[in-house]
Amino acid sequence: MCSCKKKIKNCEFWQSAYRTSDLDKFVQEDSWIPYYPRIIQPVSANLANQILNLVMLGMTIPFKHYIWNLSYKVYREYYESYVDFVNFIVSRNQSSVFIDGGKQGFRPIFIQSFSRSQIPAKLIHLTRRPHDYVYSYAKVYPYLSKAFSMKMRSRNDIIAFAAKKWLSVHRKVLNLKKFILDENYYSMRYEDLCQDPNHFLAKTLRFLDVEYENLQQPVIYPEKFHLIGSQSIQKHGFDGVIKLSTHTADLSTEEIKIIDRITQPFSARFGYV
Ligand SMILES: [Zn+2]
């Protein structure tokens, strides 16, 4: 859903973004190039592609940007259409900020390496209390399993599955961190963000070298305002406080034990224990 209340495929803004750029060009590519933003159509995560991406990025450590010369034309093309896409969104949204919400995170690191660090990658690592993540995941699991033909699991298996997912996603982000400078990494807890969004958004904007704007201002050109994101913010508006739901009490002692055991390598590190 877009903030204009239309589905992406019916929203003129996203459809013109689709038509103007060559976005769909790489979607079907079964090669080592990074995935495109997933606004056009969901692309199922391709494990081989992910592994190749990580291997290629790993090789940028000894070989630097020269590694992309292996297949320069295709990377150049990818790089150019990505930058075109960013420029298009930035100009239409009248904002200098572009956030790539891609969950794999390969793209920003690739762009940094390919541009020889002229476009630096900055990583914002948002964490959430594992109990709440696992609870929410288990709640939507029946729908997910239907939509993506995943096998139906027992309750405890779903809990363990979600906890492992939490762990592996954070492991992935911490792996990506190796490709950037320490000062370009910033981690933030979702819980802290909800408690004081303005404070943390100001901090985030400083991290991004972007001037602080009061985010509670009315939108100047609502007809040009097209966001894909949290539907609860779209529904209830943003008044500086996001209601945080905590679910530890909704989990059984056994479920909590499973979650704590699996997520323990990182949960202490992020301050959740
Ligand atoms: Zn829209």
From TrEMBL:
Taken from the record, one Pfam family name reads: Sulfotransfer_3
Q: Which domain of life is it from?
A: Bacteria
Q: What InterPro entries does the record tag this protein with?
A: P-loop_NTPase
Tell me what this protein is called.
Answer: Sulfotransferase domain-containing protein
Q: Which organism is it from?
A: Acaryochloris thomasi RCC1774
